[in-house]
């Protein structure tokens, strides 16, 4: 069984790039900041794409993995709804900016998801006999994170729409 140095040495470079992006964005989230709306959607896009790629590369081997992914994505979306702190965001639609409070949650969440996915990938390589069983856990983690990160943009879009469109009474929402 290879040691940590062997495992890290055989890790593809793109994995470290993803880790670096998630760490930098997570560290930036520790302090209040104002960001362009498109930047607010980078992390959700990374996890959604990662989840879909995980599904696409494994689903042909077992259609049950599709059900696993869809079920956990639904759970992820359900979790995102109450956990997305969109009420703490201040949207400047005219300038395309969002003011966000500082929080440790994005850093902890992103690194936890990354660590789970990385460890499952390493386990699948180190224990090929468990590959099939680990695939369900990996797809579940992918579906859960993709669903969570689908839920946040949906919740944000609803808030953004309430800020940019007048309500029925002709008064715009805060």
Helix content: 55-70%
Sequence stretches where pLDDT stays below 50 over 5 or more residues: none
Number of strands: 3
Q: Radius of gyration from the CA trace?
A: 19 Å
| Count of separate DSSP helical elements | 7
Structural class call reads mainly alpha
- How would you spell out the order of helices and strands? HHEHHHEEHH
Main sheet: strand order: 1-3-2
From the spread of the alpha carbons, the general shape counts as: globular
N/C terminus separation: 57 Å
Q: Mean pLDDT score, rounded?
A: 87
Jot down its keywords.
single chain, 174 residues, mainly alpha, three-stranded antiparallel β-sheet, 7 helices, 68% helix, globular
List the helices and strands and how they pair.
Layout: H1 4-9, H2 13-28, E1 33-36, H3 37-40, H4 42-58, H5 64-83, E2 90-92, E3 97-100, H6 105-126, H7 131-164
Antiparallel strand pairs: 1-3, 2-3
What does it look like?
The chain is mostly helical. It has one domain. The chain contains seven helices and three strands. Strands 1-3-2 form a three-stranded antiparallel beta sheet. It is globular. The model has no long low-confidence stretch (mean pLDDT 87).
């Amino acid at each position: 069984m290879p040691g940590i140095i062997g495992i890290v040495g055989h890790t593809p470079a793109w994995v470290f790039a993803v880790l670096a992006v998630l760490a930098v964005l997570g560290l930036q989230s520790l302090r209040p900041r104002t960001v362009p709306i498109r930047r607010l959607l980078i992390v959700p896009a990374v996890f959604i794409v990662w989840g879909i790629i995980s599904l696409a590369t494994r689903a042909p081997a077992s259609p049950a993995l599709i059900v696993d992914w869809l079920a956990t994505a639904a759970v992820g979306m359900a979790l995102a709804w109450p956990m997305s702190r969109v009420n703490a965001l201040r949207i400047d639609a005219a300038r395309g900016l969002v003011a966000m409070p500082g929080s440790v949650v994005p850093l902890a969440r992103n690194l936890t998801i990354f660590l789970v996915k990385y460890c499952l990938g390493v386990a699948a390589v180190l224990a090929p006999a468990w590959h099939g069983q680990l695939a369900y856990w990996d797809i579940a983690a992918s579906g859960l994170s993709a669903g969570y990160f689908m839920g946040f943009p949906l919740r944000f879009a609803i808030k953004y729409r309430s800020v940019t469109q007048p309500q029925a009474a002709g008064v715009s929402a805060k």
